[in-house]
Amino acid sequence: MGELVLSIAKDPESRKLFLKHLLHDVEAIERMLDGKMFESGVTRIGAEQEFCLVDNHFKPSLHALEILEKINDPHFTPELARYNLEINLDPLELKGNCFSKMEENLKSLLKKAENAAESFNEKIILTGILPSIDYRAVQLKYMTPKPRYEALANIIYELRGEDFELNISGVDELILSHNNILFEACNTSFQCHLQIEPDQFPDMYNWAQMLSGPVLSVCANSPLLLGRQLWAETRIPLFQQSIDTRGKGYHLREREQRVTFGNRWIKSVADVYKNDIARHTLLFMTDIKKDSLEQLEKGRIPKLEALRLHNGTIYKWNRPCYGISDGIPHLRIENRYLPSGPTVDDEIANLAFWVGLMNNMPKQFSNNWNEISFEEVKENFYKAAMWGIQSGMIWDGKLMSARALILEILLPMAREGLEAKKVDKKDIDKYLAMIEGRAENYATGSRWIVNSYRKLKKKLERDESVVALTGIMYSRRLTGEPVYKWKIAEIEEAEQLDMQYDIVRNIMSTDLITANENDLAQLVLKVMEWRDIRHLPVEDNRGNLKGIITKKRLLRYLEDSETGELAIAADVMDKDPITIGPDEDVKFAILLMIDKKISSLPVVDNGELIGILTDNDTAQIWQKMKKRSNVKN
Hints:
Creatine Kinase, Chain A, domain 2, three-stranded mixed sheet
């Protein structure tokens, strides 16, 4: 998309012309397949590395474009958010030491980025979802100021016609609405490319679909979002929901999402494109100078600009791609479900495992996909996203654990596939050992993050825990050890980090006990006694703050009032409590509580109660801020 001058697909005449080019492109690719014009006899691999930038407090950066300018390398491109960048790696032929060479190339490019980031006192994190992302990082201030991103955000919001909704449940749940697409930017992936023989494309694409669940299960690395423990690979539901163009009224129509696994086996690469054109409205157009069919008639290779542009706005987890190298067209599959990180070695291991499996499809599957349940394959994928290495898989009609499937069947299969392509034994042993180590020990990136987070949370607050986790993840990557060898994070490591206590949102309590304005005052007192709390916010039925009750005030009222037994919360509460916004400075909140001589401070956003600060909270934070300041001095 970045190479083209884009416009939103609204102008009727321009739209008709672009759609004509789109139809011609589909016909052109079918003619090229029939004429055997695609490159054959060579297999190449490639990858795109997305990564996060964090400041010296391990919070999302705002300097991606400045760092990109300082890097000054065409391999790097911007991403949707100002805390993400992407590296496009040069493709390599699948043979010999291609994987270790790709590892070396990627580490060299990341070193360039690290050097540039250091000049801003910032760091690089490789992870599927940055643990320390907070609500600020999904506001428009963090969107990369590029016309194509603004256009994408506007058209998707317009198509949806209402705010985006996230509803993801795991150990915790995250339910919220949001007015822009920046939650999509929370996802960072390691997108893998594999060139495919043109006449084998349908079988290989279907095989890629079948492998998706088992491969994802051992590669999962994204279990947290906003401090909530959700899916093993939370990127899967997050990406689907964050740019879902369907409003509520469309769901019963079974309208397909733009982020999709698919719903059936394919019969040709053109079959995929035809289905996408039929199902998904055009988002963008560009001015196309050369018609693809006319180019074919002249013996030239068409760019298929309309088809590639439309394909780029439909986010299949396995996406078919058309490309041209040295004037020769080729087909490849882009694996989009693999997360970034947690180390370069782990990412290359994921690539090697997937490529080895892709090159060893059992012969009985060829042209025989109707005998295999697509629903079971799709089910495997979503179970892997939810439970990772702890999930169960249906394989060859049998239910088995993902761990057993990988260790007993898929790792030997991947080894055979790599050996058949004459990949160096040293590379095969090195990278498949990492996959084996993860499966054998249930030690994926996702499990390390979850286990470390739970340990940190025993002594730290939520925001402290995710920041500490990010910092420790960074330190672990620098050791050079793959994730299955990482030790669980320790509190002592967290205490060495430079924490930033800057805004109320990041220190407030959100697990609230509240009263309804019509609750009996006696009930309110019992709740306060049961939960040993001194301050109880009072809400209406819509969650709007109506007042606050302190235990002292309530006891006094019940002692003095002749109608205490029938009093309700609204009779007792302070109807005009002092409140604060979630993005106010922490020091201001502390001083406000001291100045007003109050022991609790409700946090309100547009009238809705979203959290509370108590004097116990602020006392602890003040001590931590003083301790950090003393350490610095």
